[in-house]
Design goal:
alpha+beta, five-stranded antiparallel beta sheet, three-stranded antiparallel beta sheet, 6 helices, 10 strands
């Protein structure tokens, strides 16, 4: 034993030094990679926060800069954590293989076996990888977040939780949908930047359109000046005019640009306000035409 140590002491010391050097370099690379990832993510989120503050100053954003910054910080933490974990796994794997090489273990069979295992896992878990990649890009691009109302196709409702694999959506009936991120082909975010409240009014065919438009213009002007609704309106309501004629009615459309999430409340309130104005000024809304018999004559229902 003494002779063996005497003959191999130099190789043993050299191998131990190489192993220590590999571990030290791995730790240094991990620290550098972590700092670079943190810096890159913070720069990305910082630019988005500046855009949020600018949007808040011009009134094009419902949530205040503090809430927006908190959301961006949460995204940065999630994205940074995932990227740092990936970097750690890659660096640790390479260091482990190099340490095995210092012990004189043949690496070719290990690398080949790891490649085969990786392919098997990749084919078996490709849907999981797809979900994670989709979740990563969704967070980086800030497509939606907790509290947003989204339409993903099958599921429409309020986002309650977002992870790299799943998005939880609460629909209007109270049902909680678990949607895999990799299965979301398209998404409509109804709570981002601004929104439109679209109100379409079917007026009776006999109504004087000029008179009706004057009543509507005055009514929507009063509505926009109401202190209860004015802070949620970004642009003055716009009367688009007549957009359709048929079935004994003339349809006019009104569009109000609102802060995100306020379009439903303002749309309902505007309809009620217009109804009162129509009652006051004698503007008749359309009634469905019902057949009276075989002659083809119709009457108002």
């Amino acid at each position: 034993m003494t002779d063996w140590f005497a003959e191999n002491s130099s190789a043993l010391v050299s191998g131990l030094l190489n192993i220590v050097l590999i571990l030290v370099l791995a730790l240094i690379l991990r620290a550098v990679a972590g700092r670079m990832i943190t810096h890159a993510v913070r720069r990305m989120i910082g630019s988005q926060q500046r855009l949020n503050r600018a949007a808040s100053k011009i009134g094009r954003q419902e949530q205040g800069p503090e809430r927006a910054d908190e959301r961006q910080s949460q995204r940065a933490e999630t994205i940074g954590s995932v990227l740092r974990s990936i970097a750690t796994a890659v660096i640790a794997g390479v260091a482990f293989v190099m340490v095995l090489g210092e012990f004189g273990i043949e690496l070719a069979p290990i690398i080949a076996g790891a490649g085969v295992l990786g392919l098997a896992v990749g084919f078996g878990a490709q849907s999981l990888v797809k979900d994670f990649l989709a979740g990563m890009f969704m967070m980086i691009e800030d497509q939606y977040g907790v509290g947003d109302v989204v339409d993903t196709g099958d599921a429409v409702g309020t986002v309650e939780a977002v992870s790299l694999r799943l998005t939880k959506i609460r629909d209007l009936n109270g049902g909680l949908w678990y949607v895999r991120n990799g299965e979301i082909m398209r998404v409509c975010n109804l709570n981002q930047d601004w929104a439109n409240a679209v109100v379409e009014l079917p007026l009776d065919y006999s109504v004087d359109i000029a008179h009706a438009e004057r009543v509507i213009e005055a009514s929507i002007g009063e509505f926009a000046a109401d202190p209860q609704y004015k802070p949620k309106i970004l642009e003055a309501p716009d009367l688009n005019g007549v957009i359709g004629i048929g079935n004994g009615s003339v349809t006019v459309r009104i569009i109000v640009t609102t802060k995100p999430g306020a379009q439903w409340e303002l749309g309902n309130a505007l309809r009620a306000h217009l109804k009162n104005s129509f009652d006051t000024h004698g503007v008749q809304v359309a009634h469905p035409l019902l057949p009276t018999g075989g002659s083809g004559a119709v009457k108002q229902g």
